[in-house]
């Protein structure tokens, strides 16, 4: 994540916290990212240097009529400073700041197959107990896994995949033989 995106996110976070609108700003940022990712024409216009800033502001203002003024102001500032490409990273950095404030850890769980809702709930509860923390889990399905799960939390990596278990088994048997 770029330092520039982190700075904008921190400024927005501090302002939203002071105004007591963190949840609303977080939701609005998700709407903005969704709109930018789904409306390809909007993203192309925002990135186009030949389109005047005033036109970009009007377009963004019309597209985001129900968005918190704080969010609009940061987006307008980013447009003015030609930081359009940092908007998505800024939103991710903002979300990370909120999670850190709430002491929620974000983890990625990779599985070989899609877990059912009940299995996700059980795994979520089990992992929260293991890490003694509230977790936000990003679920990923990787067809290359034979089975098991792989958990990444921050810079730590727990490999409970079938392949890793087989490698550990092979190492154990060759060491004892």
Automatic annotation (TrEMBL):
Subcellular localization: Cell membrane; Membrane
Pfam family, one: OSCP
Gene3D superfamilies, A to Z: N-terminal domain of the delta subunit of the F1F0-ATP synthase
InterPro entries for this protein: ATP_synth_OSCP/delta_N_sf (IPR026015), ATPase_OSCP/d_CS (IPR020781), ATPase_OSCP/dsu (IPR000711)
Keyword match Acetylation: no
Cross-referenced PROSITE patterns: ATPASE_DELTA
Protein name, UniProt field: ATP synthase subunit delta
Naturally occurring in which organism (per UniProt): Pasteuria ramosa
């Amino acid at each position: 994540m770029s330092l520039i995106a982190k700075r904008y996110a921190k400024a927005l976070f501090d302002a939203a916290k002071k105004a007591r609108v963190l949840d609303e700003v977080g939701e609005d940022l998700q709407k903005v990212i969704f709109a930018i990712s789904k409306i390809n024409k909007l993203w192309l216009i925002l990135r186009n240097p030949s389109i005047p800033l005033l036109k970009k502001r009007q377009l963004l203002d019309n597209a985001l009529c129900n968005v918190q003024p704080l969010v609009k102001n940061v987006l307008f500032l980013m447009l003015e400073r030609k930081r359009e490409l940092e908007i998505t990273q800024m939103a991710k950095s903002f979300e990370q700041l909120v999670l850190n404030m709430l002491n929620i850890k974000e983890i990625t769980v990779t599985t070989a197959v899609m877990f059912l809702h009940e299995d996700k709930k059980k795994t979520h509860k089990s992992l929260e107990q293991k890490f003694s923390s509230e977790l936000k889990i990003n679920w990923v399905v990787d067809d290359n896994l034979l089975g098991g799960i792989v958990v990444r939390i921050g810079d730590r990596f727990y490999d409970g995949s079938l392949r890793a278990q087989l490698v550990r088994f092979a190492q154990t048997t060759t060491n004892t033989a």
